[in-house]
Amino acid sequence: MRKKSYKAWLEGDIAFRGFTYLAALSLVGVVLAILWVLVEKSQLTFTKFGPGFALGSRWDPVHGVFGALPLVYGTVVSSLIALAIALPLSLGIAIYLTQLAPHWLRGPVSFLVELLAAIPSVVYGLWGVFVLVPWVRSSVEPVLGSALGFLPLFRGAPYGFGMLAAGIILAIMITPTISAVSREVLLAVPRSQQEAMLALGATRWETIRMVVLPYGRSGILGAAILGLGRALGETMAVTMVIGNRPQISPSLFELAQTIASIIANEFSEAFNDLHLSALVAAGFILFVITLLLHVMARLLVWRVARVPQGVTRE
Amino acid sequence: MNVKLLVEEFSAWYGKNQAVKDVTLPVPLHQVTAIIGPSGCGKSTLIRCLNRLHELLPGTRTKGRVMLDGQDIYSDNMDLAELRHRIGMVFQKPNPFSTMSIFNNVAAGVRVNGLRPGTKMEDIVEKSLRMAALWDEVKDRLHESPYNLSGGQQQRLCIARALAVEPEVLLMDEPCSALDPASTLKVEELIADLKSRYTILMVTHNMQQAARVADYTAFFLNGQMIEYGLTTEIFTNPKDKRTEDYISGRFG
Ligand SMILES: Nc1ncnc2c1ncn2[C@@H]1O[C@H](COP(=O)(O)OP(=O)(O)OP(=O)(O)O)[C@@H](O)[C@H]1O
Ligand SMILES: [Mg+2]
Q1: What's the pLDDT tens digit per position in B218-231?
Q2: Which residue ranges make up each domain of chain B?
Q3: Among B98, B113, B145, the residue to mutate for chain A (most A Cβ within 10 A)
Q4: What homologous superfamily is domain B1-88+184-200+208-252 in, according to CATH?
Q5: Which of A44, B64, B210, B212 could form a disulfide with A277 if both were Cys (CB 3.0 to 4.6 A apart)?
């Protein structure tokens, strides 16, 4: 092997190091730039309403009153509905694809799942308007209303449009992400761990429950957070089915509004500077929510992963 | 000779590669049978066919019969969970459950097969760990992860785990390959103890070990069983030239 001169090595090293520093710095720069815009452009709102903007429950551009609580509520609740539906569904898909499906079927179906993630969200929105909303109106809401109508969650007139439809469409949109990541996670469970359980006389299901899922739990948690993050920021499809009315109602059948969707809706036709800055302020809150989510995710994953996984390495 | 497990005209494939070729091997009740042979001769493959783990790998195939108490374990109505409860296994590489505590590792099999009335999980775990000569080393950290155990301790944990469900037959794939001489000795003593209640089929690379603990020995080469007989016969008076070469260390 030819020995490189110390000088050449040093130069290359410094150049490379400089480049990576720069790359890392530019990332920090982008985050700071975004933060700066959010803070700067929302100043008007925060000086007028103070931090109470986040807690105000009225969003009324005509009278110049802005409170973000209904938007925060709509954002969080629609995303949680989505997660509640998508997580079990995705786990089922991932378990089927890695444990139960015949081998020849696994590749094509996995591909199909990943393909679903590539469909543009406006297409999901169209499908939502023409298929999902009528179905929710004619079947889902009447059935839920008569079966679970004693809960305030499922009371009210079935509009079709509203929080429930938004939650369902978000669920469909994040299912490919969560199931694709969960599938990778479950694939990484060592065969030797599963065989050990089977060899004790465990059934397939017992093996999945006692070995496969526990082994993958931190990864599955990560997948769920990823999906939730996507749901929180999703705009187009939600706008098309949620009804776009900023209000807080205990009923999931009611119209609602999310931060991302109100920005998309009202930005181009904002009445005045205050309205514009209120929209940016709402964006700032969304930024904070996603930031908090990711910090929480880090902590959770770190807690779960502290139990070492990988006595046997394969 | 009372045969507990009878392998009959048995073959196994990985794709096109035939790893076990038309093997017929009796495993006598309450005896220790050893399989010896050079690396890659199909020992692990055969042993993994006896609790039907082999077929879980995609592209694998088997042919032939394995009779457990006269019943073919490859017949269609065989309940696999029940079969694997009756035929326990210790794997070649230690594979304790990494998400469970030491205690739960031993308890796992009992949980899925059901605790017999009148027995206590704590007692079963302690007894199994004692049998595997591990109790003293782990009794103060039963609820810790097995992660910090040494390779040899992990393997003895796997032995304890297999014993806890009280199988009728115990398959051991080189159970001592990760153990130091002292623990190897303990495991060999354990095997001698277990013989009165269990039927044991073990794979070993260590010929002294086969000579010490096995009543019967089978010699494998390239997927075929070359010779089978009483261990004393195989080691003192092998009939086949290839067996003689192997045990005298001339190849493999
Ligand atoms: N998962 C697998 N896929 C394909 N071929 C395999 C697989 N496992 C083993 N084989 C092949 O089957 C043959 C027998 O392997 P096996 O593991 O049974 O040997 P062995 O006698 O247990 O060897 P060792 O003493 O090294 O453990 C070998 O040729 C090996 O290459
Ligand atoms: Mg082997």
Answers
A1: 999 999 999 999 99
A2: 1-88+184-200+208-252, 95-166
A3: B98
A4: P-loop containing nucleotide triphosphate hydrolases (3.40.50.300)
A5: A44
Confidence class for position B251, pLDDT limits 50, 70, 90: low
**Whole-number pLDDT of residue B84:** 96
Judged against a pLDDT cut of 60, whether residue A309 lies above it is answered with no
Q: Which protein residue has the closest C-alpha to ligand 1 atom 17? A: B44
Q: Which atom of ligand 1 is nearest to the CA of B38?
A: 25
Distance A201 CA to ligand 1 centre (A): 24
Q: Is pLDDT of B240 > 60? A: yes
**Residues from chain A contacting residue B85 (CB–CB below 8 Å):** 200-201
> Is A214 in contact with B100 (Cβ distance < 8 A)?
yes
What is the predicted ipTM?
A: 0.93
Neighbouring-strand partners of residue B61: B13
- The average pLDDT across B99-113 equals 95
Q: What is the pLDDT of residue B180?
A: 84
